[in-house]
Amino acid sequence: MEGAVNEDGYRQQLTMNKSLSSLSNEAPSNSSSAFYFFTLYMYMYVQPILCVFGFLGNFLSVFVFCSKPLRNASSNVYLTALSCTSFVFCFSNFLVWLETVRVQIIHQEVICQSIVYITYVCSFLTVWYVVCITFENFVVTINLRYAVIVCTVYKARIIVTSLAITAILLYTFALWTTKVERGHGKIYCDIESEYQKTLHVFTYIDIIFTLAVPFIAMTFFLGVVYVKHIVVRVSCSPCTKSNTCRPVRRTRGSRNDSLTKITRVLLAIGSSYIVLSVPSCVNKIRAIVLSVRDQQEEPTHDSWAVIQFSQMIYYLSFCLNFFYYLKWSVNYRKALGDIFKVFISNRESEGKISQVPFINLFSRRAASHDYDQVATYV
Structure pTM? Predict the structure, then answer.
């Protein structure tokens, strides 16, 4: 249990259950607050719900965004990749939670290293795919003509693939710095003591690429988008009662309406991710500061509760995207409805699905305008 709480944020995910298991074997001290018991209850009963719902919602989203009318948009390429990493992350996190019900899958060889590795890779990809989404929203909001050139499906696929390869190579060290330790009748998936210094180096690299740079970029992009929306709303409000705004509305028509819905989805994804990640980021920064100062902090029930509660808030970001799609994306709802119709009709009549190609079930209309080709046909 030593170092489980005062270690840097990079190690938090791996040692979380080890701390919980050790603390759970101790009687709660008088210093244990109501917040600890509340967090423990949330961890045992709410976190698996978040994991299962996040897995199912993102799993469905992958199929929806891969459908014919939606896959021809660059932003949907990022949303597909984000959904893939999210449902894999939720699944691996659920396997970690299973230790709560004494199903110790994570503490087995190969599975131990694999889950830690997958968690790190998915965390890296998630934050950078959100950065790509906020960048697309930024470009579309600022200059639509430039977006037609920059935001293409081909470029989006290259970026998604490049990020995936980078993450796969960058975090390979997790495969050889973790092992299954046995002692005192217990088995733990933990970090090899001989690689502590190496891990600290990768910790600072990870902080730069998954915390500092992405959050600065997202804050800038989202800030500009919000300012742009405020300026447009303020500038148009005086002329709502006059005829000066009518020609603009006529020339753009449904194009502005569609763009508004698209920016809402992308804006909600980026904004909620930043807000829900703040508590976890604060804990990481605090852990890094303590590590730099060489200060030790004895693990307690309350310190575990603070770390775990901030993590659960972060996990919530993997579930909310599904609601954003349902609320603001008409095409997402249509494609999702088509999927359920296929399954229902398949149960009613065997072999009926084979008569209709799967890809054609989603054929409603293809993106035809430059605006749609920007990858905003969500």
Answer: 0.81
